[in-house]
Amino acid sequence: MDSRRSDCEATNIDIVNRVRPNMPETRLLYELSDFFKVMGDSTRIQLLWALEESEMCVGDLAVLLDMTKSAVSHQLKVLRTAKLVRSKKIGKNVYYALDDHHVKSILEKALEHIGE
Amino acid sequence: MDSRRSDCEATNIDIVNRVRPNMPETRLLYELSDFFKVMGDSTRIQLLWALEESEMCVGDLAVLLDMTKSAVSHQLKVLRTAKLVRSKKIGKNVYYALDDHHVKSILEKALEHIGE
DNA sequence: TTGACAATTGAATAGTTGTTCAATTATAAT
DNA sequence: ATTATAATTGAACAACTATTCAATTGTCAA
Predict the structure, then answer these.
(1) Would residue A36 count as lying in a domain?
(2) A-chain residue closest to B10, CA distance
(3) If you average pLDDT over residues B90-108, what whole number do you get?
(4) Does the CB of B113 fall within 7 Å of any strand C atom?
(5) In a domain, B11, yes or no
(6) Is residue A71 helix, strand or coil?
(7) Residue B1: inside a domain, yes or no?
């Protein structure tokens, strides 16, 4: 049987064999790309940026981002699932806060790449 | 005229008004989310990870990732457009290399978030 | 308990994206 | 010139995703 997907042979098989054992495991690979997928949306970047400044409830965030509560709530759920924010209910409101101290430094690194 | 998209009033208008001036400009916002979009794909993470170890040509990368040259080439183009990799042609081969020293530290920060 | 408000939810839709496939370009070797 | 190999390209398809809309839950006030 031959389950190779690649449609060619390696030109430098020595390099490939040296690099291969250092490649990330499948699980880690998907955790990494899933994390960046969560960051890869302008609405969610805005939410994280805002929550870096202050805790806020869904309605406040909706006004700040000029979006419906529904749209904001959907995206907050994504951030909550990714454990980047946490929420607490106070009366009729639900307040959200950052739940990861890496977010800020990752945003800063990304800003460095972009060139400020 | 009223071009508000949000379907509510702010509960804490003082907080919203304090945070608003610190929000990122539209251009920066999209540069940030576009950058993370590029990182948010397991194939491209693998390519960056591999190129951190060594320059390689498209065929080598295809064998290493067990994908077709076409699929790899398409993704390399995305990375090239994002200025994360550069390429040079040597004979029939095109060799790719990392073109951004931030990639490594951003991956490391992301690994910290995930918890190694 | 009735009415109003905050937030969540699920379904639907429109837009985006990754891989495949077939065709093409460019280089090297015979 | 011809053939073979490396890589790129564009179109097509399937899978995924963000927002909208309507309906629902939960909480407070009257």
Answers:
(1) no
(2) A60
(3) 95
(4) no
(5) no
(6) helix
(7) no
| Domain membership flag for residue A59 | yes
- Chain B residues within 8 A of A28 when measuring between CB atoms: 111, 114
Are A31 and B114 a contacting pair at CB < 8 A? yes
Taking 90 as the threshold, does the pLDDT of residue A1 lie above it? no
Q: Is the pTM of this model over 0.85?
A: yes
Question: How far lies A84's CA from each of A28, A66, B65, B85, B94, in Å?
Answer: 18, 22, 30, 29, 40
pLDDT at residue B115 tops 80: yes
Q: Could you give the number of structural domains in chain B?
A: 1
pLDDT band at B3 (very low <50, low <70, confident <90, very high): confident
| Domain extent at residue A108 | 41-114
Distances (CA, A) of A39 to A9, A12, A63: 36, 35, 21
* Beta-bridge mates of residue B96: B56, B87
